[in-house]
Amino acid sequence: MVMQTEARVGMSSGHGVVGNKASSSHLLTPYQRSHIESASQLLAGGLAGAFSKTCTAPLSRLTILFQVQGMHSDAAALRKPSILHEASRILNEEGLKAFWKGNLVTIAHRLPYSSVNFYSYEHYKKFMYMVTGMENHKASISSNLFVHFVAGGLAGITAASATYPLDLVRTRLAAQTKVIYYTGIWHTLRTISTDEGIFGLYKGLGTTLVGVGPSIAISFSVYESLRSFWRSNRPHDSEIMVSLTCGSLSGIASSTATFPLDLVRRRKQLEGVGGRAVVYKTGLLGTLKSIVQREGVKGLYRGILPEYYKVVPGVGICFMTYETLKLYFKDLSSKL
């Protein structure tokens, strides 16, 4: 449609029908343009999330495997996590493709999750500026930080709630090693519903929402603050380099702050797999206490190293791709 429109504009310009961008802008009503802008934001966010997750899938799987090591193992028998050792084991026992085990469901989850996340963030941010009266005034750094933090937290909670069953499926597929209990997305959804009931698809949601709100809030607020500071001091630097660097730093900040909550979330998601006994029978605080007692404080950060290796390129790629696609779609829509 875009190519046809551009061709039509080019062909008609010699006859004075649609001579330039100014006259072509009347082809769409404000209502239509608003819908195109919303669709562009959703598409840019979804593609950015899916692309980022695919690039970092091997490190993501290693993180999950380390996070769940202490669930059914004796604390004394737990070896020191070694990325190289675990990667070699996966390669030798499961093959190269195993590094992307569960990546299909990751993409199926990340497309709607990132779309809803980025889209709702933009709208929550606009709403926050409007209700606080900062929409048409130059706000202070602290005020902007507050808006970005709250909007990011609300966006994360919205996106996680809307797509949670797919996140659960992805964790269970990625955590499988020698024993294959689930064979695919639909089989996993059906099996969980049959074995654990429909509410089994939302196992660990409470912990997820407690963690994802602050995580996304920190990620967005750090990213926006760093990006704004960078652009004000070095306005001519490459947009791609700015987004990649600020996105990576924001990912490190959010992962460090919320990693124990993410670890509890993963373990809660794996409760009762294949009829296994429930390990953690208490809430969030009780589970955190149990992990510290069994594995020490270091147990709360089991898998943090591959998480860092993943999050630096992952979040950077995600923000960079989102900003690039957003500008690209904006340019396309202006030609309609």
From TrEMBL:
Keyword match Protease: no
Entry's transmembrane regions: none
Keywords per UniProt: Membrane, Mitochondrion, Mitochondrion inner membrane, Plastid, Plastid inner membrane, Repeat, Transmembrane, Transmembrane helix, Transport
Extent of the Solcar repeats: 36-127, 143-229, 238-328
PROSITE patterns, per the entry: SOLCAR
GO-annotated cellular components: chloroplast inner membrane; mitochondrial inner membrane
Topology with respect to the bilayer: Multi-pass membrane protein
Keyword 4Fe-4S: no
Location of the protein in the cell: Mitochondrion inner membrane; Plastid, Chloroplast inner membrane
Alphabetized InterPro entries for the sequence: MCP, MCP_dom_sf, MCP_transmembrane
Family the entry assigns: Belongs to the mitochondrial carrier (TC 2.A.29) family.
PANTHER family, alphabetized: SOLUTE CARRIER FAMILY 25
Listed name of the protein: Mitochondrial adenine nucleotide transporter ADNT1
